[in-house]
Amino acid sequence: MNHLTFKLENSLVLLKYVIVLTIVISISSCSESRRSESEEREDEIKAELEQAHKDSVELAELIAKHDKYPLIEYEHIVIRDNKHLAEIREQFKMDEKNPSINKAFLTLNRKERRFVKVGDTVVVPKEYFDNMCAYSIFPQYYHGARDIPKLILVSNRWQCYAAYENGVQVRFAAANTGKEKTPTFPGRYALVWKQEVRKSSLDSTWIMPFTWNFHRFSGSAFHKFDMPGYAASHSCVRQFLDDAEWLYKWGQRGKLDSNNIYIHLTGTPVLILDVFDFTRPKTGPWFALKSNKDFLIDVPENPMEFEEAYIPIQQIPKTSRGILPDRKRYVVAEDTLRARGHIREGVVLTESIDFNELRRKKKAAKLKKEAGEAKEADSKSESDPEFKPINQDSSSMR
């Protein structure tokens, strides 16, 4: 009995030892496992930091590579009188021997020479380049657009645009966008169709060379037109003739479906980045720049995730309202834009007007009135007792 008790006690001791040993091994294993996981995470973080550093170095190198223009300082000249105005217009006229002087002047001031007047301040660079990208406020290299073959960025606030090819800026140009009651609304668009010389469907007296439509229903488009130097259009993006022609040849139209209808947002992407400051309606921040390095506009990190434009339904021609996709979006657009501060309080947007139709109705009303007056005159003549019709009896003829 004592022997059995002794064996049992020894077994219990052995069992306790095994259990304790198992627990110790388990704890040790868990500890090693935790250390292993921690070390793996540290390695991952280290790798991520190294990659981020490498990416930032590569990005910095790319930016430096494409930022090839030197510092160009600007002069600000106030037009004193008519004599001075004539001198300025002569100095910056188109010269085939040195076109960059004229082009830089037009681009920096966002206007044609004929719109410069006495009292105006004009911006003049101290150095001239043939490529207007030298004066651009957009980044020369746009990393977020590196995988996009072609892209157009437009700034209402700065009245200009830039064109990119795989993230590299290839064109910088002045623009005059929509006035306050018919603005060019911010958001994502795409080129749709083009026409070399177009008469507006709303007013045939508006002749628009090198038209590039970028919203199928509103009719908004890039085209050549008067450039007074501020936001003045009916929601379109006006350009100088050479810029309009370049964009016309460069851009890519939208794709067509099996019914020959343009597929939404399939042409060259167009991003309208911001809104014009209508508290200073006939001037802009570009006149405050002291050099080409003073300011760089913010661009979205991922351009293809930029929100599609909200366009109020009253700015869609009535003939197009019945075929709008997602019509509700156009109906709520004005409230959305006002809530975001894109339309100032008290500003009433102008309804889309078909001036061609108004002229047709006016002409028809005039013809109808003239016909009525002629008929009334005939009626009065027939009832007049002094009215005597001429008798053309053949016997009276000699």
Sheet having the most strands:
5 strands, mixed
**Amino- and carboxy-terminal Cα gap:** 174 Å
The CATH topology of the domain at 136-284 and 295-339, please? Answer: L,D-transpeptidase catalytic domain-like
CATH superfamily of the domain at 136-284 and 295-339: L,D-transpeptidase catalytic domain-like
What percentage of the residues does DSSP assign to strands (E)? 5-15%
Based on secondary structure, the structural category is alpha+beta
CATH class of the domain at 136-284 and 295-339: Mainly Beta
Q: In one word, what is the shape?
A: globular
**CATH architectural arrangement of the domain at 136-284 and 295-339:** Beta Barrel
Q: Spatial order of the strands in the main sheet?
A: 5-4-3-11-6
The average pLDDT value, as a whole number, equals 87
Helix content: 25-40%
**Multimer state:** single chain
Which residues sit in consecutive blocks of at least 5 with pLDDT less than 50? Answer: 1-8, 392-398
Tell me the layout of helices and strands.
Elements lengths: L1 H65 L7 E5 L3 H10 L7 H11 L11 E5 L25 E5 L4 E6 L2 E7 L12 E4 L3 E6 L7 E7 L7 E4 L12 E3 L1 H10 L18 E4 L54 H13 L15 H29 L15
Parallel strand pairs: 3-11, 9-10
Antiparallel strand pairs: 1-2, 3-4, 4-5, 6-11, 7-8, 8-9
Question: How would you describe this structure to a colleague?
Answer:
The chain is α+β, with helices and mostly antiparallel strands. It has a domain at 136-284 and 295-339: L,D-transpeptidase catalytic domain-like, CATH 2.40.440. The chain has helices at residues 2-66, 82-91, 99-109, 241-250, 327-339, 355-383; strands at residues 74-78, 121-125, 151-155, 160-165, 168-174, 187-190, 194-199, 207-213, 221-224, 237-239, 269-272. The strands form 3 sheets. A 5-stranded mixed β-sheet has the order 5-4-3-11-6. A hairpin with a 2-residue loop joins β4 and β5.
